[in-house]
Amino acid sequence: MRSIIDDNERTVKNFIGKTISWTSWEAIYFSNERFFAEKAALFASRKDEGFIKDCHGDLHLEHINIGPDGICIYDCIEFNDRFRHIDVASDVAFLAMDLDFNGYFGLGREFVADMAGALGESSAGVLDFYKCYRAYVRGKVGGLTSVGEGVPEDERKEAIETARRYFGLALRYALFGSSPIVIVTFGVIGSGEIDLAEMLARELCAPSYRQTG
Amino acid sequence: MRKLPEDRFLKNLLHGGKCSGEDFKRLAKKLTDFYSGQTPGGEVTSNGSPRR
């Protein structure tokens, strides 16, 4: 896990100023560093409790088909076992993150609750970390797509925008976890409270609202 | 090989408002059975070490 995250951070560093700001990259980097430093025992207990399984590895909305004949989950990771031999929480976090990304925050929470039996109680301490990791990887993929050879201009722009949104979501998980949050900025006229609010909204890919008077 | 119906992919179902909480409960059950049916250990656990 550690080496995969390190690789991702190195790759994404090349996209600073394009799909992710330096501030966001650094905030996520330090969040991961702190997590590894403080949660070593939790990682070990997840392993000892048997939550590392041969999972799907790429469990998102486009890999699940719910038809009249039943549910088909397909296209698991096959090119590298390390990406599939993971904590069950990492698999579940991917789908929960994808639900959040598409605006289905409530369904994401319900899905995680429904998976409690497979996740175990200790998953509460790792889920947001894995959701951040999953959003970060999707952001990385968007960045790489945007610089791919022969990618049409409209697809390139879409990939950049998608990557920005994923990194914004990753930042949200890193700073605030999965809980809904409201950030209020205020001040006297000219103190920069609106600029600050807009900057935060941009970084976090969140809506901003203005109330005067 | 059979083609999965495009309109039944979860993303399309959600965007079309055709996915129920019951569908998610069924999905959670299927995934839970999949994970719970495995005995951890060996190469899988080794590959999943946090330091790797």
Give the mean pLDDT of chain A: 93
Pick out the low-confidence regions of chain B: none
Number of helices of chain A: 9
Low-confidence stretches of chain A: none
Structural class of chain A: mainly alpha
The general outline of chain A is globular
Please tell me the overall pLDDT of chain B: 85
Describe the structure.
- The complex is a heterodimer of chains A (213) and B (52).
- Chain A is mainly alpha-helical.
- Helix content of chain A is 57%, strand content 7%.
- In chain A, the strands form two sheets. Chain A has a two-stranded antiparallel sheet. Chain A has a two-stranded antiparallel sheet with strand order 2-3.
- In chain A, α2 (22-38) crosses α8.
- The radius of gyration of chain A is 18 Å and the shape is globular.
- The N and C termini of chain A lie far apart (50 Å).
- The mean pLDDT of chain A is 93.
- Chain B is an all-alpha fold and 52 residues long.
- Helices cover 54% and strands 0% of the residues of chain B.
- Chain B has three helices and no strands.
- The longest helix of chain B is centred in the middle third of the chain and has 16 residues, at 21-36.
- At the A-B interface, α3, β1, β2, β3 and β4 of A face α1, α2 and α3 of B.
Quickly describe the structure:
The complex is a heterodimer of chains A (213) and B (52). Chain A has 213 residues and is mainly alpha-helical. Chain A is 57% helix and 7% strand.
